[in-house]
Hints:
By secondary structure, the protein is an all-alpha fold. It has helices at residues 25-31, 37-57, 62-79, 91-110, 127-147, 153-164, 169-176, 180-202. Helix 1 (25-31) packs across helix 2 (37-57) and helix 3 packs across helix 4. The longest helix is centred in the last third of the chain and has 23 residues, at 180-202.
Amino acid sequence: xxxxxxxxxxxxxxxxxxxxxxxxxxxxxxxRDPAQREAWDVFVELYxxxxxxxxxxxxLQESDAADLVQETLLLLYxxxxxxxxxxxxxxxxxxxxxxxxxxxxxxxxxxxQPVGDGLDPAVEPGWAEQEEQEYRxxxxxxxxxxxxxxxxxxxxxxxxxxxxxxxxxxxxAARMGISPATVYAAKSKVFQRIRQELAGMLE
Length: 203
């Protein structure tokens, strides 16, 4: 089963990566409650692209990577309620280990090999930084997708053009037939909600 993931949004000039270094503890707590279906949906949307990137990095073809990710998500659905978050611990490290173990299990099922067979994929130099960047972009994508329905089309279009696309405010105003003050106000309103959403996710 193949998956098409949307390209990561460009990093806007206001973006502060320091805000997005950690997995949201509040999300992990909600995942422990079976009634929090929305938490699982957010988790899948946030981490599926990262699982897919890891799988492709290990040399899997797209269809094989998609199958591995699907099997891992089914396993995580059972395992996540048992995961206990500790300050300073690496949730993504644990997540990568779960995916890696599933990958090893699949490999040994198809081609039995002895223990210590060197199946662990090599970690390329600079990969940790690339992984972090992918996670940040995906977190930003999830937040923007969630917030978009809250705003009138004019406000969101002005925000996208000015902040995400980097267009000059006066050009945006002229193209949309609004005042530059409205463009600045759009940025301020969306920023306020992004900060609120981040505070809730990273609390």
